């Protein structure tokens, strides 16, 4: 009985997803009437279709790691039946909580002609020291530091890492700064569609790669640090909380700030802090 119910749930989920995609395709392709002078609702790019459910609806399988979605129901052994299914589902369940600390890089020279010239300012280096000290003071056993490959993020990671000896570091292009998705309300300055099209898919890939519940094999809670950029962090927060991702520009983050996301084994997500710089003296706080 439980197995048949699981199949029904899976079938309903597939049907609902297909309907949502079909509806989105129809809505995007529908021409506007000549007399329609109302504001045009922003259209999501193709890669963003299905990134969130309807308003007020939490998608428990947002990271595609719900146990039922991790097993192949077609391989069910009819002789062992429901007992085997329950065992396989239990084997796929996450047990640990992931704590993800998203750090915005420190202040940098914005007038650098080339990206490699956009190094941290003297104040930016102070900010990174303060951020590193704050993270060290938490007394947590951090598992790793993942940072953007852009100069200002690398330098921030260098300084923060000094205060966390023994914590491994990984550099990635996925976390580089960019324009994730056209914001709503729109910004006054214009950005070509190609920028959102190219950057958005990459930043969405970063979200899917780094923001998800723990693997079923993970036994202990983990504490990870991602050092990157304001746009990336703001988009990740919106996606993780299943808020409209187009609202990312409504959030503001200081340089060297700490944002703390918690992803529990059930897949629920909590935002402990957003852009915290309370550990910095007021004269050290900037947003450039």
Alpha-carbon Rg, integer: 22 Å
- What is the residue-averaged pLDDT? 84
Give the helix/strand class.
Answer: alpha/beta
User: What is the β-strand count?
Assistant: 6
Keywords for this structure?
six-stranded mixed β-sheet; 288 residues; single chain; 6 strands; 6 helices; alpha/beta
What would your notes on this structure say?
- The chain is an alpha/beta fold and 288 residues long.
- The protein has 6 helices and 6 strands.
- The protein has helices at 2-29, 81-91, 122-137, 151-162, 193-210, 230-240; strands at residues 98-104, 144-148, 168-172, 222-228, 258-263, 269-276.
- A 6-stranded mixed beta sheet has the order 3-2-4-1-5-6, sandwiched between helices.
- α3 (122-137) packs across α4 (151-162).
- It starts with a helix and ends in a 12-residue tail after the last strand.
- The model is unreliable at 6-36 (pLDDT under 50).
Describe this structure in a few short sentences.
The protein contains 6 helices and 6 strands, in the order ααβαβαβαβαββ. The chain is an alpha/beta fold and 288 residues long.
List the helices and strands and how they pair.
Elements: H1 2-29, H2 81-91, E1 98-104, H3 122-137, E2 144-148, H4 151-162, E3 168-172, H5 193-210, E4 222-228, H6 230-240, E5 258-263, E6 269-276
Parallel strand pairs: 1-4, 2-3, 2-4
Antiparallel strand pairs: 1-5, 5-6
Helix pairs in contact: 3-4
């Amino acid at each position: 009985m439980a197995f048949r119910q699981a199949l029904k749930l899976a079938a309903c989920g597939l049907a609902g997803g297909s309907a949502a995609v079909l509806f989105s395709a129809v809505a995007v392709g529908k021409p506007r009437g000549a007399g329609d002078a109302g504001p045009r609702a922003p259209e999501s790019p193709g890669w963003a279709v299905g990134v969130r459910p309807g308003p007020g609806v939490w998608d428990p399988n947002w990271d595609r790691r719900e146990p039922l979605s991790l097993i192949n129901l077609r391989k069910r052994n009819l002789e062992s039946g429901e007992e085997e299914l329950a065992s396989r589902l239990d084997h796929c369940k996450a047990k640990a909580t992931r704590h993800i600390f998203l750090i915005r890089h420190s202040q940098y020279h914005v007038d650098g002609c080339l990206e490699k010239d956009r190094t941290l300012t003297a104040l930016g280096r102070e900010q990174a020291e303060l951020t590193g000290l704050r993270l060290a003071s938490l007394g947590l056993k951090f598992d790793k530091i993942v940072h953007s490959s852009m100069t200002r993020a690398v330098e921030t990671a260098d300084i923060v890492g000094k205060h966390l000896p023994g914590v491994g570091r990984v550099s990635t292009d996925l976390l580089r700064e960019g324009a994730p998705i056209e914001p709503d309300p729109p910004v006054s300055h214009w950005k070509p569609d190609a920028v959102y099209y190219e950057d958005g898919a990459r930043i969405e890939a970063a979200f899917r790669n780094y923001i998800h519940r723990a693997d079923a094999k993970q036994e202990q809670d983990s504490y990870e640090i991602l050092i990157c950029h304001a746009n990336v962090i703001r988009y990740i927060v919106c996606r993780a909380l299943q808020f409209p991702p187009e609202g990312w520009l409504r959030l503001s983050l200081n340089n060297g700030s700490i944002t703390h996301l918690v992803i529990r084994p059930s897949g629920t997500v909590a935002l402990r802090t957003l852009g915290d710089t309370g550990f910095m003296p007021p004269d050290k706080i900037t947003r450039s």
